Amino acid sequence: MSPTPASTKERPAWQALATHCKTLDSVGLRDLFAEDPSRGERLCVEAAGLFLDYSKNLVTDATLGLLHDLAVHAEVAERRDAMFRGERINTTEGRAVLHVALRAGPGDTLVVDGEDVGPKIHAVLGRMAKFAERVRSGKWTGHSGRPIRNIVNIGIGGSDLGPAMATEALLAHSDRALCMRFVSNVDGTDFAEATRDLDPAETLFIVCSKTFTTLETLTNARTARHWCVQALGDDSAVARHFVAVSTHADEVAAFGIDTRNLFEFWDWVGGRYSLASAVGLSLMIAIGPENFRAMLAGMRSMDNHFRSAPLHANMPVLLALLGIWYSGFHGCQSHAVLPYDQYLRRLPAYLQQLEMESNGKRVDRDGRPVDVPTAPVVWGEPGTNGQHAFFQLLHQGTQLVPCDFIGFARSQNPLAQGVHHDWLMANLFAQTEALAFGKTAEQAAAEGVPADQLPHRTFPGNRPSNTILAEALTPHSLGALIALYEHKVFVQGVVWNINSFDQWGVELGKALAKQIEPELTSASEPTLCHDSSTNALIHRYRRWRNQG
Ligand code: G6Q
What separation in Å is there between the alpha carbon of 465 and the centre of ligand 1? Predict the structure, then answer.
């Protein structure tokens, strides 16, 4: 691979796009669809059971050609292959990035530091499956011999968002007799509310932490241990009510969890890319090993597509390039993810971490300033709820917000002979149409809108969106969807020439909190050396805290 130039903006492919963008000022989606009646059938791609329609984007064939050139010049294919080869592409942490190995097929070879990691991945998956079956069948009993009915995953960030999102997404495929809870926040309310109606004798905690040193997780885990031991009256209860997921057996043992109850993963699995590892144990217990394997198969199927499809017909590459087109050339600073499926309620939060923690960077892989905008703010809510709230801004606001609409042809809950679902999907299609084509003043006037109201009741259109459809929300399609976005993030990171796999930006606040906590709790008034705002806030907190 050739050394990457310092400036992304100065690259010929970027410059060509900048020039091209100016020529599109007067081109709208109405014209593009009128000029090419087959555009809606042409600008789409199907892979791993997902169908992507990207025709309602502000692009011409020339735009797509230039975006393709950008990907070629950024060596997307070469860098993708380096990731799959297990090279240490996470340079600031000196690690390989091999979450794709977690879902490789039994016969596939994926090598890290000369070792084929397949056998150990499958060994852990096998142990997880055995354990999950024991819990699901009631054979794994608590300290007092009662079967486990409640599973509480304690973890945060990458050790929470994936399993929490996927467990909710696959509720319809879950054992409903089990009660699944997720505790992440150091705010005691999270633990208190998650456990208030649970019987400790029937509750299993999964302490999920790659490092096993994370403040929030260890604080919650200690509280959980106290809650459990106090109720069951015996320290040895921990053995039946706590298991761990981590890369650090020593820390797990130091916490007091028997390492026979440890499900391990490896440092080449990044937190936010770890759902397919033992971090997915809570999910596997909820949906069963077979469904978990179906999710892995969905991921694998998207991995294979990403690895083999030509860049111009490669779904993650297309999503990535379209995102770059809007942030880099249209000034878009946010991106909405709009799942038209209530089960995907947590998907926007999951993708928020995936995209913003991976690509919210301002220096390139060599530490030089990046001279183009990187990750936008990712946000969203399920449809149709969002339509009655923030869609106003999407349709008529002053910002351009590209959107991903995600929907399914068949509902898990086809109430009233499918009436609910047909309305849901009618709304999805209607929104993408309204955003793209809007309503002109002439159309509104023809509908009888009074002249003085026309400015308020016209819709500019030209608001871009992708539509992702699958037949149904299943473990397989969810897996494909997750891998799709993982690879989208990867491609964007390559084009922006940033390291998508570190997260140094979360460290400073953590370090300061460690310094401030004793200042909040010390018996004597501390001497504070912060700025005047932080000092005054700490003083006020101490005053009010101690009055209560
Ligand atoms: C994810 C991040 C971060 C991490 C959490 C939890 O990519 O690294 O969100 O997952 O900070 O870390 P532990 O799993 O080590 O507790």
Answer: 31
